[in-house]
Amino acid sequence: MEYKKHYSVLKAECIQYLTENADFSKKCFFADLTFGGGGHTFALKDTSPNSYVFSCDQDPDALKNGRERIEREGAVGKITLFDTNFVHFPEVVKREAPQVLVEGGFDGILLDLGVSSHHFDEATRGFSFRFEGPLDMRMDYDNPDIKTAAEILETYPEKELERIFREYGEERYSKKIAKRICETRVKDPIKTTKDLENILFHCYPKEDRYGKTNPSTRVFQALRIEVNQELDVITNVVDQLFPMLKIGGRLAIISFHSLEDRIVKNEFKKISQGLELFAEILTKKPILPSEQEILENSRSRSAKLRVIERVKAPREKNKYKHLSGQTNTFDDSSDDE
Ligand SMILES: C[S@@+](CC[C@H](N)C(=O)[O-])C[C@H]1O[C@@H](n2cnc3c(N)ncnc32)[C@H](O)[C@@H]1O
């Protein structure tokens, strides 16, 4: 299926952070664990003739499109694209690309979390209530071991559905919605995006139904997170990636909602308190897209970039402080430190 266009979020900022300490007179290794449309991967490859990028994705459309693009743009040998969930990326590198670790590790590793525009804009994937489509929502849609959103709605106990909507969607009406779903499913299976949207519509009070954001967004987000186990994979991979960095190497993560960002922030904090490897958190507050970027791509508005560097010994000053007020708008939320 044709891969829908994806705008790469915070691209210039990611490249700057990930390449700043790289010594391009030698081979440099980068990793992009969320290939998507390949925007960040190709930008990393283009940083120097000595740059090599190891990327992965779990989405068959992203992989097919990516392999064709790598071939078409003459990047075979410079970009290696693995078909894997990124939680397995460390093992895959050890097995398939051990030279990276033998030669000292990665200069930069990037995760640009979540789904791509392709997922939202392709009706057959079932991620969006804007189109009629099957309630699938699996990124890895040819994996029969993963439950689709429709299977979750059909089989999960009411209490579990309520928890998912509350925790992953921060949905106020989670109890009412879970109850309505369980009442409906005994009569009619809930198979399509529009079946679900219709149920949700009747769960919200009239004044909430026609706001700026469609209230169904929260339940769709919650289901997507549950289908793809999006929070667990982040929690499980971050501390495995850090030791794969060279000294001076950086791990940059872009998140798109507070649940993801909280995990990234906490994982970075834990790493920075480790006693065996030393780390410096470079983004005291997360980097946000500029107003210009948000104008060009409204989906970037919720993006937050955090970066951590592997250092030889703990440093004291955050030399990025000066960047904070200038090119980017910064989040002032009080829990950021
Ligand atoms: C936001 S998009 C990345 C866009 C990309 N940076 C670009 O510039 O085009 C996220 C991509 O990561 C993939 N992805 C998300 N979670 C994943 C996981 N756990 N394992 C592998 N790929 C994942 C999705 O399939 C999607 O293609």
Amount of helix: 40-55%
Strand content: 5-15%
Biggest sheet details: 7 strands, mixed
First-residue to last-residue Cα separation: 43 Å
Q: CATH superfamily assignment of the largest domain? A: Vaccinia Virus protein VP39
Mean pLDDT: 92
Which term fits the overall shape?
Answer: globular
Low-pLDDT ranges:
325-335
Strand line-up of the largest beta sheet:
3-2-1-4-5-7-6
Total number of helices: 16
What would you report as the Rg, rounded to the nearest angstrom?
A: 21 Å
CATH topology of the largest domain: Rossmann fold
The quaternary structure here is single chain
Draw up the topology in text.
Blueprint lengths: L10 H9 L8 E5 L6 H7 L5 E7 L2 H13 L6 E5 L5 H8 L1 H5 L3 E7 L4 H5 L27 H7 L2 H12 L4 H12 L7 H9 L4 H4 L6 H13 L1 H12 L3 E11 L2 H15 L5 E4 L9 H6 L7 E8 L9 H4 L13
Parallel strand pairs: 1-2, 1-4, 2-3, 4-5
Antiparallel strand pairs: 5-7, 6-7
Helix pairs in contact: 1-2, 8-9, 8-12, 13-14
The protein binds S-adenosylmethionine.
